[in-house]
Write a structure and sequence with these properties.
By secondary structure, the protein is of the alpha/beta class. The strands form three sheets. Strands 3-2-1-6-5-4 form a six-stranded antiparallel beta sheet, sandwiched between helices. Strands 7-8-9-11-10 form a five-stranded mixed beta sheet, with helices on both faces. It has a five-stranded parallel beta sheet with strand order 13-12-14-15-16, with helices on both faces. A hairpin with an 8-residue loop joins β2 and β3. The chain is elongated. The termini are far apart.
Length: 592
């Protein structure tokens, strides 16, 4: 024997080869029926027999089922009582049994014409955690064959393989059943959400018309018109509910269908409640997967239903935003608003919000809800155009504005290719529309040209800073020496990039603006630097002047009555904004 391989002497032994084959079968592709048949065939071959069966046992039900039956009988798939056949003998004995003649087996199922051919019989239990889950039975046709204890041990060994196969089959069946139940529950939840949407919207409309009828009666007017509208709304709600339950939603796959469907929803809202509505489409509409279009429309429908039922709004705006890799829907109202935390803490009150969140997550997207009492609500659902998009990643959101489509496409391509953390959430061709797009999208950065025939970069910056003092605007300028650059900086533009700059320079400026920093090249700094630099806050100018005098941070902190850490923060901000490499360079710039 080779000491390095103690099993070398076993090679060529049929029993050893059969065990190796069985191990490979169990480790390979799982097919329980074929695997049990292979186990039985290996067992019969080693015992030089050609008949046998493997059964599964259900002691609680008092039955067993022949999973594989070879050689005689052909009873595979049949179920029998546990008090019959070789399996019944094994279960009664709770151990392996051996018979010299098949005629000794009580209640055998072999046909009378075949019984005379069968003589010796081995039946062994297939065990799992001490319980009998099946049996392995082998028949001999040799009248002189007498099965030995060694034969029993061999069959019991193969029965352990059968136990693994049966246990795995049951686990697979259990997993499949749980998967089926999960799918049923998911579909049930989807239907519940759809019914909630359609029924809620329909009932809200009916109630509004009934309120009109009640007021008409109170004024001694004719309520017939309002009642007729209520009847029509109820009929429409019934039809929509049936369509939701039966799955008859129209397709929303082409680029225009989703916008048209949303327009119809807004028209319904105007007619139902007299609310002023508006639809804004930003970017180039693209065809969407059917499920994406359907769920986005449902998000809009449910959000509008919530507005109608709870908000008391006068105006509603819906935005469809087609970005580079995502599609977003935004719903804004000027209603009474609510406390998001308190509502989401109560499952019954939060049913509608949970439905919105579930829909967005179903598409691999995100949902944001912003609301303030007395100031309305803003809901934003953003989903990927394609499921492969990583929706969990935090990225800098950029709105790109340029009148020329080719330039705009180039800017989008550069930003998305050069910096994975940048997400272009919208593209606008007219700068006059940037303010409206900004209010809907709330991007981290707006990238726009300084030159524009209608609204130039200085005016655009002023408009954006008026609605949001923290708005970050990066302007594409023909030259840093343009006198408008200083004017834009005074108003609050965050960064400037010359039109002939390279991709890396553009990306650096946009990322700096997204982080709240101001990245100024030496050329820009030379244009903007003045005794009272408008890029610095009053406190930063005080700190800069003291740094220029050579004072250390501790002394500056004492003079300004602030902490040393605050001084360090101001110095860092000043270095970033001025482009100075260190305090010495900053002092030199100040003396210049």
């Amino acid at each position: 024997m080779n000491p390095a391989n103690p099993h070398t002497s076993l090679r060529g032994d049929p029993r050893f080869d059969a065990l190796i084959t069985m191990a490979a079968d169990l480790a390979g592709r799982f097919d329980p029926q074929r695997l049990l048949e292979r186990i039985l065939r290996h067992t019969m071959a080693l015992l030089d027999c050609d008949s046998g069966s493997i059964c599964t046992v259900d002691e609680a039900a008092g039955t067993y089922r022949k999973e594989v039956d070879l050689g005689v009988g052909c009873l595979s798939g049949r179920t029998f009582p546990l008090d019959e056949g070789v399996t019944g003998e094994v279960v009664r004995a709770r151990r392996s049994v051996v018979f010299d003649e098949y005629a000794q087996v009580r209640g055998g199922h072999i046909a009378a014409r075949d019984r005379g051919e069968l003589h010796g019989v081995i039946g062994v239990p297939i065990l799992s955690n001490g319980a009998i889950i099946g049996t392995c039975v082998v028949f001999s046709r040799d009248p002189d064959r007498r099965f030995t204890d060694a034969d029993v041990t061999l069959v019991e060994l193969f029965a352990t393989h059968a136990a693994i196969a049966i246990a795995n089959a049951r686990l697979h069946a259990l997993a499949a059943e749980k998967e089926r139940q999960a799918a049923v529950l998911a579909e049930r939840e989807r239907v519940m959400r759809d019914v909630h949407d359609t029924v809620g919207r329909g009932l809200a409309t009916v109630l509004l018309h009934l309120d009109d009828a009640e007021r008409a009666i109170g004024r001694a007017d004719d309520p017939v018109g309002a009642l007729g509208r209520a009847r029509s709304a109820a009929r429409t709600a019934l039809t929509e509910t049936q369509r939701s339950v039966l799955g008859f939603d129209p397709g929303l796959t082409d680029a225009a269908a989703l916008a048209e469907a949303v327009r119809l929803e807004l028209s319904w809202m105007e007619s139902a409640a007299g609310v002023s509505t508006r639809l804004i489409v930003i970017g180039d509409p693209v065809a969407l997967p059917p499920e994406t279009g359907r769920q986005l429309l449902r998000i809009v429908q449910e959000a509008l239903t919530n507005v109608l039922e709870h908000a008391g709004a006068r105006t509603v705006r819906v935005g469809l935003v087609y970005g580079g890799h995502t599609v977003s829907v935004l719903i804004e109202d000027d209603g009474r608003g609510f406390d998001v935390a308190s509502v989401t803490a109560e499952p019954r009150r939060a049913l509608g919000l949970q439905g919105l969140l579930a829909r967005a997550q179903h598409l691999g997207g995100t949902l944001q809800i912003e609301s303030t009492r007395g100031w309305g609500t803003r809901i934003r659902a953003e989903v990927p155009r394609w499921p492969a998009v990583d929706s969990e990643r935090t990225r800098w959101r950029v709105l790109v504005a340029h009148e020329h489509e080719l330039v705009r496409a180039g800017l989008v391509r550069v930003l998305t290719d050069q910096e994975p953390d940048i997400q272009v959430v919208g593209e606008v061709s007219e700068t006059r529309s940037v303010v409206e797009a900004y209010e809907l999208l709330r991007p981290h950065v707006v990238l726009a040209p300084l030159d524009h025939p209608h609204v130039d970069g200085v005016q655009l910056t002023a408009y954006l800073r008026a609605i949001d003092p923290e708005a970050a605007v990066v302007l594409l300028v023909p030259s840093f020496s343009d006198e408008r650059v200083r004017g834009a900086a005074q108003i609050g533009a965050t960064g400037f990039v010359e039109e002939h700059t390279d991709a890396a320079g553009l990306v650096r400026a946009v990322v700096a603006a997204a982080r709240g920093d101001t990245l100024l090249t030496p050329e820009v700094f030379s244009v903007l630097t003045a005794p009272d630099d408008p890029l610095l806050t009053p406190r930063e100018r005080e700190v800069r002047d003291l740094v220029a005098r050579g004072l250390p941070d501790k002394q500056i902190a004492v003079l300004l009555q602030i902490s040393v850490k605050t001084v360090e923060k101001h110095v860092g901000a000043i270095l970033r904004k001025t482009g100075a490499a260190n305090r010495t360079e900053l002092a030199g710039l100040r003396r210049d």
